[in-house]
Structures are given as structure tokens and as C-alpha cells.
Amino acid sequence: MRYTGMKPKTDARKLDQSTQAPRRKMVVQAVRDGMTQVDAARTYRVSLRAISRWMKAAREGGLRALRPGKRGAVDREGHLSHRQAVRMRKLIIERMPDQLSMPFYLWTRESVAQLIERECGIKVSKWTAGRYLKAWGMSAQKPVRRAYERKDEAIERWLNEDYPTIAKEAKQEGATIYWGDEMGLRSDHISGTSFALKGETPVVRATGKRFGCNMISAITNRGELSFMVFEGTFKNATFIEFMKRLLKQATRKIYLIVDGHPVHRSAAVKKFVAENAKRLRLIRLPGYCPELNPDELLNQDVKTNALGKSRPTSKADMIGTVRRHLHRRQKEPHVIRNLFKEKHVSYAA
Questions:
Q1: Same domain, yes or no, for 183 and 309?
Q2: How many domains is the chain partitioned into structurally?
Q3: Over 90: is that where the pLDDT of 22 sits?
């Protein structure tokens, strides 16, 4: 054999386990401290492939994952058949864990792994479950709350029958469809993110004196916006005053779609609507489905871009900030129209 002047690599597999574990930790720590994997392979005389495998194990399970294990063949995880994979994907898309009598609120890698084991009798790690989720076109997302009281049948009927009929009738009458909603605003509202040193949560300082105001608004898919900012609770008189303002500026009949707030169902409001039936029609959405109302997106815009980017020091300052933002939005009809492009409200565009 020709002499190359290089020391032969030590086959780590031939070392006893009491020697292997410390060496793995030394190599991983050296790489973490800044040594390249190539230099580590040369220094500790191990293969790059082994170092790559140890680094991955340490990332996923910490240094404990480098402890000596059993020799011999590794127990491989089971694999889902195509039919099993299709079934698991369907369950995850159509149901939440609690609907499948599982002790979880959300679909996580751990809960998916348990679902696979329970339904298919195949045990997989959370990392394998994560790879399945990625292959199935899924990603981790912030969930949206849904009330238990909501009735899916009523929502389906609204989307497929009720609203198409309303839109047709509005066209026949030459009416304009407005989507209305009201919202409370607080001085301690925080939205968005802030840069800070890693591991140090940023602290937002604000006055300990909390204050707030309320707003009511209505928008159309043509980009029109009407609003009213007010103090105190939302009462019958407030809503009636808002509808009067809508009627005063309107040149066509108004179809106003709102949620099931008690004020919207009050006797005083019903009387006012009846007295103005030739120019006003009040329509209520199905219960517990705010995501169907495009005006909810305007509420989010106000919280994020008006309050979220300022720190009001008084109630007057807060009201002024909200009003200025909404006045600006009135001059930007394209922004209002874009709200109707969101997937869950596009039916109203």
C-alpha cells in the first residue's frame, strides 16, 4: 500500500460506547463554537457524514440525543400507505383534535403522530409527522376562533341562497349594500412585532390609566366608507343616529347588513327601520360568524395601522387618531375595495 503521509481515519463504529458518546459531544460542541465541520472531521478523525448526523440529532434532541444507544439494526418507523395518508390528511383538514376525542385543541406534530398511531397502528416521531404535514401541503398557522353556538347549516344557506338573493334584490331596487359593524378600542392595545435582542422580550411602556372609545362603520364593495367615533356604550340611540347619517348622505336605497348585536334587534331600531322602509332595509348575518363581514377587516386595519402604530396619551388623542385614520381611508376607496378580495369575504365583492 502506498504511503500518503496522512493518518488513517478512526472508524468510530469500532470504538466502545463509553468512548463514542464523549467524542460525539466534543465534535458537536466544537462545531457550535465556530469550527467548521470539515476542520472538525480532520481534527477528530471522523467522517463528515457522521458529524452531519450528530449535529442534526443534537439540534432535534439536544446533547442527550448523543448518548450511547443499542448496537445493531435501528428500528425503523412505519410508513403510511397511500390510502392511510389520504385518510389522515382528510381527518386533519375536516376536524380538530377535540372533535376526534383527542386531548388536544390544535393540530401539532405531536397530536398528528398520536392520530396516526391511534388510527393506523403505526408509530412515528413528531419529526416524521412534520414531514407528512409538509408533504400534505400544510403549514403552522394561527387558528381563528369559532363559537360552538354557530350553525354551519345557516352559514351555508347564507352563502349559497340568502346573500345571492339579497344581492339580486338590491340590484333590482337600485340599492347599495353596506356592511356595518361596531368595535371598542382600548389604549393598551398592542399589535405587530418589535425588534429586540434574542432572548429578551421587548417591553412596551404605557400609562397605567386605561381609556378607550368606540366606533361604528359601514363599507361597500365600491370603496365607500361611513363611520362614527363615539364615547360610552353602544346603545339604540347611537345606532339610530348612525343610520340617520347614512340616509342623509345616500342617494340610493340602503341595504345595511349587520350582526346579531342586541341593539340591532331592539324595538327602537325596528321601529326606525320600519319608518324608513322605502330607503332602508336592515339585514342580519347568521349568528357567530364575524368572518363573513368585510367590515371586520376594517376593524383590524384600525387596530393595526391607527392604534398599533401610535401611543395615545389621552382619550381625546385616541379619538383624534382614529378619526384621522378613517378620514384618510375615505379618500382611499381602493383600500376599502381590496378588503373584499380576502378569501372569506370575496363572496360579497
A1: yes
A2: 3
A3: no
Which CA distances in Å does 41 have to 21, 46, 47, 57, 68?
Answer: 16, 5, 6, 17, 20
Q: Which residue has the cell 342580519?
A: 284
Q: Is 237 among the domain residues?
A: yes
Cα–Cα distance measured from residue 226 to residue 217, given in angstroms and rounded to the nearest whole number: 6
86 and 58 co-located in one domain: no
Based on the domain organization, do 127 and 218 belong to the same domain? no
Q: Which three cell numbers stand for residue 92?
A: 386533519
**pLDDT tens per residue across span 70-122:** 544 444 456 888 999 999 999 998 888 878 888 877 889 999 999 999 999 99
pLDDT digits (tens, 9 = 90+) for 153-207: 889 999 999 999 999 999 999 999 999 999 999 876 555 555 555 666 655 555 5
Pair 230, 213: CB distance under 8 Å: yes
In this structure, the number of other CB atoms found within 10 A of the CB of residue 2 comes to: 3
Residue 325 counted as domain residue: yes
Can you read off the three cell numbers belonging to residue 344? 372569506
Asked whether residue 4 is assigned to any structural domain, the reply reads no
